[in-house]
Design goal:
about 425 residues, alpha/beta, 16-stranded parallel beta sheet, 5-stranded parallel beta sheet, 9 helices, about 25% strand, elongated
Length: about 425
């Protein structure tokens, strides 16, 4: 700890509302800490240098709790300027820290610091990137009403007590290699563009509350005695299949079938993207012969087609109403294509379509093939006859497929489904 010389301390009538540079900030902190030390010493009847550091607060943010003014920091803020001055470059702070009502105009760097006392972040607006990496918090840490307009990095931090991050306005946030020891609560009022939660060993409860994320990445994270509790947690896209699988398995472990099914649908979409990438790599691989490419592609192409059909029919088993309507619609289309008469013939019956509805109903009966028998015995053009037979059986197959999709989607909440 640096012992301040009273004669070297610059006088301030009030806290500055603008820090143009680090000199102004450090001058204010020295003056304010000295005043705090004198006041506490007078109250306790001790010498100023006998006051414990943990009784003092680094008021980087607004000190006045009644007349709260926003303080502008117009330079690149690096907390090392504080540790270098007060602790001779030791990466540890024993003061309480107040970061409240601050507007950072440049990047912020608070990295690789051990905070032994409470730290408060509230009503912060950061225009630059926010680096908050590899810090260790021995006491409480509070985040409230934070606006981070660019990327923010919280990866590698260790929290020994519960941390509340609520609410956040974020663009992109990285919690990779995070080590919460007691609990983590995260809430955000606006959509997060990217959320990284990689390689986190979860041995406590982590709450994601009222969060909408464009893309989330949980790859490498594991549940080790803890749990993830997502409440109103909406993810539009997962960065990889492992992330969707991670949340799906966690939801199943908590008997949350509704969320698990949604994550399962996202997992299938990610798997499709992986298959598309694999097929592209195979096609572009010049070392593979044509036969080898075909052998590797036929299963991948089949899986991709299956996923596309499932998505097209029922949103991967999530929407039975859509599956039912698509089954009826596609079956009717196939039937109409099949039922078109041979337009090359001049003797088409005037009332050809009078039996259309009754024949359509028969077409929906899986075991009824009376129409195709009559069709095969007709004198239609051979090409049209072959085409018609193919369309007829394609429609039957798609009807069966759609029926299965409808039943599966309808039973998605059933036990064991």
């Amino acid at each position: 700890m640096t012992i301040l010389n009273v004669n070297d301390i610059k006088e301030f009538k009030e806290q500055p509302t603008v820090y143009h540079n680090s000199y102004i900030l450090m001058s204010w902190l020295c003056y304010d800490l000295n005043k705090q030390r004198e006041n506490i010493a007078n109250e306790l009847g001790i010498k100023p240098d006998e006051v414990d550091e943990n009784s003092l607060t680094l008021n980087i943010g607004c000190k006045n709790k009644i007349n709260k003014k926003v303080i502008d920091v117009e330079f690149y803020f690096d907390i090392s300027i504080i540790t270098n001055f007060f602790y001779n470059s030791k990466r540890e702070i024993n003061y309480k820290c107040n970061f409240q009502y601050i507007r950072f105009k440049e990047n912020v760097s608070i990295q690789s610091i051990i905070f032994n006392e409470e730290i408060y972040f509230s009503n912060i607006n950061s225009s630059g990137d926010f680096y908050f990496r590899n810090n260790e918090f021995k006491n409480n840490c509070y985040f409230d009403d934070i606006i981070l307009n660019k990327n923010s990095y919280f990866n590698g931090c260790i929290f020994y007590k519960q941390i509340n991050i609520n609410p956040f306005y974020l663009n992109c946030i990285d919690f990779s290699n995070l080590k919460p020891k007691y609990g983590l609560y995260i809430s955000c009022l606006t959509k997060i563009h990217k959320l990284y939660f990689n390689n986190v060993n979860i041995n406590t409860k982590i709450d994601f509350y009222n969060i909408e994320v464009e893309e989330a990445d949980f790859k490498g994270s594991v549940i080790n005695g803890g749990l993830i509790n997502p409440v109103n947690f909406k993810v539009h896209k997962f960065a990889n299949r492992e992330s969707a699988l991670f949340l799906k398995n966690e939801a199943y472990a908590r008997n949350n079938a509704i969320d698990a099914l949604q994550y399962k649908a996202k997992e299938i979409e990610c798997h499709k993207d992986d298959l598309m990438k694999s097929s592209k790599d195979i096609i572009q691989n010049k070392e593979y012969s044509f036969n080898k490419k075909i052998k590797k592609l036929y299963k991948i192409v089949g899986d991709i087609a299956s996923i596309y059909l499932s998505s097209f029919y029922s949103d991967n088993g999530q929407n039975w109403v859509k599956a039912l309507l698509m089954t009826i619609f596609i079956t009717i289309i196939c039937f109409n294509v099949f039922y078109i008469p041979d337009l090359t013939q001049s003797n088409i019956m005037v009332f050809y379509y009078k039996n259309w509805f009754s024949e359509l109903i028969k077409y929906f009966i899986p075991t009824d093939y009376s129409l195709i028998i009559k069709y095969a015995a007709s004198k239609l053009n051979l090409f049209l006859k072959i085409f018609g037979v193919l369309v007829y059986f394609l429609g039957k197959i798609l009807f069966w497929y759609g029926s299965v999709q409808t039943v599966q989607a309808f039973r998605k909440f059933a036990k064991g489904a």
